[in-house]
# Entry
Amino acid sequence: MSQQLNSGRQQRAITPTVTTASFKPLSLDEIMLVPLTKQKAEDQMIMDMDELDLMATNSLGADNAYVNAQRDAFKGEVGSVRDRLMTEGVDRSLINKFKGLRSRKNLEFSVNGNTGKANAAYNTMQLNKKNIMNDPKLSSEQKRLGILEAEGAYNNAGGVSGGAEYIDYIGNEYIDTNAEAQKIAAQMTPLSIGESLGYTFDGKQYKDTSGKTVILKPEQIQRVAYQTMKSNTKTMAYLQEAERLNIIPSSDDALKQAAINAGNMYQRNDSTMATNAQVGAMGNGSDTTTVADQNWSGVDLSNAMPGLYNEETEFDDARMATIFETNGMIEGVDPLYDESREAALAAEFRRKFTGAGRREMTAMGYSSKEIDGQMRIWEDNNPSYTASQKQRAKIKKSMNDLKSKYPLLSTQLVPAVMGEDGVTVLQPARPYTEREIYTAFQQGRKKAAFQFSQAIMPMNVDNTFNNYVESLIGTKERPGTFASMTMSIDGSEPGSLEATAKNDLVNVDPDDLRQAIATTGKVIGFLPGHSSMPGAYAIQFVDPNDAEKTRVLSVKGSNKSKQIFNTVSRMNNQILKAIPHTKQVVMNSKGVKVNQHIVTQMNPATGEMSAYTINTKGEDYTKEDIDSFEFVYNRDKGVDVAYKDGVMVVPPLTRKNYDQEIQIAQSATSNMFDSTLTKNTTK
# Structure
């Protein structure tokens, strides 16, 4: 039995199965993964530590000690981490320590850290310095000392440790007080004693050939110049800054000295020849101009033709009375007013609710009531300014444009009003109001309009001009040559006969206008100052709609007359349109090319605008050059001559006013027509 049991056990025994496993060796990459990863970590940590080690910042004086201490402390910690890394390699403890070091560094150098704030203060100073150095309105001393002042204020406040903040130096515009005082002195009206000597002045010339004696004491100039500059906030802002920066010892002493210099320079106690107010009274110098031939005379047509002054500008007389406040300024203009936005809104409104837009909404089934409702909703969502607000904003813009064109309007002051004792200031100097500026502009336009309507006519009946006018007017049966020329009535827009006839001023059939001119017309002469048709012919005729009224037709002249009167025409045009300066090349009477400058000046002190010509040969002066010259009347040359810093410009640079240019043109006209032979004249 036991044998059987043993036999059974043997039968149940499990024979093990042996399987041979295959060997796969690790790749080189797998073998090196751990050490390479460790090496990469070490390399990255070394690079980061190098960044920390190189950290440095620019700082101002008060922050140097703090910033250097922070830098040295970080460098010490970086060195400690590097030593451990070289000897022990990367481990979790070292990585955590390094991360903590980098976090503290980043915080210290951020905008919230003191080192970061110190660096920001330095960068702000550098930007401020760059801007100041590029500012042309500041003197070199202002630039140097102003930056030092701003940096000193920061350092004295303790820098970042004291919670200081760098404040930019701005600087006030440099003012040449001597030049300012001289400007004031030049504008002062001398006390005239000419009347006591029997001299008279008719607005154009002094009747006594010996001239007019004037007196202006230096003490008078000094008082006015001193008080005027002292009341000028711009001047005082600069002087007070200059005193603070130690550029000058005393602002008041600087004012007084400038006033004394101006008083000594502009004092007058002399007898002078008549000034350039004398129309055409040229001297005998090399630059003189021949006085016009008396065969031609002037005639005033201002009653018959209003001229261009009646053309509307933003400064329309009827509206301006309601624009100025009691202080003489234009107030209450919304600074957010945007003219372009208003125009866009108006265009969008028209597109949506008028014309095709409205028809489209009707086609979509909207009733008129519904369309009006949509329109009101749109207006509520797109608010616009009222008509009066728009008008006020436009006028203010035009006023600002005028001030920008003529800086004198903003810089020149109304002189102080002094008491009888010559010391007491009854009314300090002040800027001119916008009402006073507007008045000066309008006076200038009125003057230009008057000049526009002044004709010159020949007195010589045998003058070839008189022979020409017959063909110009024509007859009832035969149209005159004017009918095919460009023309205008009373300063209207130039156009053809057909367009002029339909003008609102007459509004008649073109042939009726032609007939009226042929039967009642009389050629007066030339219109020298016509702003758009230089040297136009002036034809006076009876209004075909009103036999009691006469009008003036301006007809475009010949190329020769245009050439003669081109200068005076442009002078008028610049005044009407407030154009400060133009320059072009023209031919003088000798056929030489010259650079002709036409400048207009607006003077609120005298309440007028004036135009001048300045011709330069060879020298291509800029507007800035012209503005820097001082023009003084020269008796020998009979015109104003340019000076620079008290020295005459060489070669001499002359300036002529409108009346003088008229005399030149009139003389040329006389020579052109009176020298031409006719059957009634002989050589």
Notes: The first strand starts at residue 191 and ends at 192.
